[in-house]
Amino acid sequence: MRAVEISAPGGPEVLRPVTAPVPVPGHGQILIRVAWAGVNRPDAAQRAGLYPPPAGASPLPGLECAGHVAAVGPGVARWQPGDAVCALLPGGGYAEYVVTPAAHALPVPEGMALREAACVPETFFTVWGNVFMRGGLKAGERFLVHGGSSGIGTTAIQLARAFGARVFATAGSADKCAACEGLGAERAINYRDEDFVAVMKAEGGADLILDMVGGSYIQRNIRALADDGRMVQIAFLQGPKADLNLVEVMTRRLTLTGSTLRPQSDAAKARIADALETQVWPLLAAGRVAPVMDSEYPLEDAAGAHARLESAGHIGKIVLRVTG
């Protein structure tokens, strides 16, 4: 099969088209013929040598895809060859075929093309697991998401708004702020010109913050939280270390937590999949939420897709055309 491998840790140029064996599904797994594959920040981290795949996972990058079931392994009852699915992957999405646990696949939402469906799993699993399951966002609460124009950000804005939260977002340009507000944020904060801490304090503080920046933002997030507020950390674009004054955490009863999706157990990811199918798939089918598409690249130009991702110019999701 055609695939793209990471030839050595480094920049986008280390992504190299290769020919690789078609994987064989094991017990509880399905083999997917990939039509489209999503491109995500963890792919770039893996390419740079900072995010190794878990034991037993494919060394090829790619954490989400959409396509058709090509074969099923022993113990799989739900799926049959030919079924259209989108799926969260442990790795291997930058290829014509990939295996994943059957419980991590979901039907392509009604009315959605495979191109868009390929951009659903990684961001929707991440947002649902962190904003709603871990962060406990409720209707009426003030929710702040950093990087509002990213794949994660555009998903978080839409889902939080759909479930009745008041949504705020940060972004780095007027165009990106406009995109965030167009998706449902009542206030987009251009972090180059404004202080999100001051903005959120004027609103009474954030009840929940979803952060992927880290570094200096960690202490600033603490200041931006309302009493009894929660912060969920999912990445560290500025680095994982910060000087913290925990007095505010104690006296204002704040909760600091976080997670990363890939190392979680198959059972934990299956629970997120079940919740998404029940709670979110009807919204996707109705068009109330949808992945925001930025650009597409052929599989062989995965390097170009990564360069676009790391340019910080994109709004929404980048996708690879594999067999679509």
Automatic annotation (TrEMBL):
It comes from the Bacteria. Coiled coil: none annotated. The keyword Oxidoreductase applies. InterPro entries: ADH-like_C, ADH-like_N, ER, GroES-like_sf, NAD(P)-bd_dom_sf, Quinone_OxRdtase_PIG3. Keywords: NADP, Oxidoreductase. Residues 10-320 form the Enoyl reductase (ER) domain. The lineage of its organism: Bacteria, Pseudomonadati, Pseudomonadota, Alphaproteobacteria, Rhodobacterales. This is NAD(P)H-quinone oxidoreductase.
